[in-house]
Design goal:
The chain is α+β, with helices and mostly antiparallel strands and 200 residues long. The chain has six helices and nine strands; from the N terminus they run ββαββαβββαββααα. The chain folds into two domains: 97 residues, no CATH class; 54 residues, DNA Binding (I), subunit A (Orthogonal Bundle). The longest helix has 9 residues.
């Protein structure tokens, strides 16, 4: 649960980032952020930990379970950051729509991994242009070979995405129902995960 996704809003309630529940708890505890619930009420750490935990949505502590927040709002930051899109596993998955770039299937996230198109053993680099989302089966089949050597064909050539931070959030399928009101401006009608969805 501590690694599950939490939507971060700036002080104007605009979505700017997705972080982990672990980091969200830290920000709320330090009074850098407040938790936002479905009724748009905000809670500091003490008020939030007193709320009853929902089934399957809590983190155990010595004082009992604390509900995992799904949305937090920063108390001072009001800009929408213009930032370089970070190279990360999640952003690779998002760019490739959580789809294996060899066979075209969309397996459960636990069955996805990252593959170097030109393997590192053959001089391939870890860059946007040489890394793709791959299912475990295709990754095993390809091994330390190029797609041509393994008789696999890429669905499309990998490239550096041109997302803004908000478009990145809209394109992710790691959403929870509680995110909906804050992403309506950038939503493309994709599926929202229900709280507790294993894919999240």
């Amino acid at each position: 649960m501590l690694n599950s996704s939490v939507l971060v809003l700036n002080r104007s309630y605009l979505p700017i980032h997705v972080t982990s529940a672990r980091r969200a708890f830290s920000l709320v505890y330090q009074d850098i952020a407040r938790v936002v619930d479905e009724q748009y009420q905000t809670f500091d750490f003490d008020a939030w930990r007193r709320l009853p935990s929902e089934r399957g949505e809590g983190v155990g502590t010595s004082d009992g379970a604390i509900r995992v927040p799904r949305v937090i709002v920063l108390t001072r930051f009001d800009r929408v950051p213009r930032r370089h899109l970070r190279y990360s596993r999640l952003n690779i998955f998002t760019r490739d729509k959580f789809t294996c770039q060899y066979c075209g299937i969309r397996p459960h996230r636990s069955r996805l991994n990252i593959d170097h198109v030109v393997p590192r053993s053959l001089g391939g680099k870890t860059t946007w242009e040489n890394v793709v989302c791959s299912c475990v089966d295709c990754n095993r089949r390809k091994g330390g070979r190029t797609p041509e050597q393994a008789r696999l064909r890429l669905q499309r050539r990998p490239a550096r995405p041109r997302w803004t931070p908000l478009a990145n959030l809209a394109g992710s399928n790691l959403r929870f129902e509680q995110w909906r009101p804050f992403l309506h401006v950038v939503s493309g009608g994709q599926r929202y995960a229900e709280p507790g969805d294993a894919a999240c």
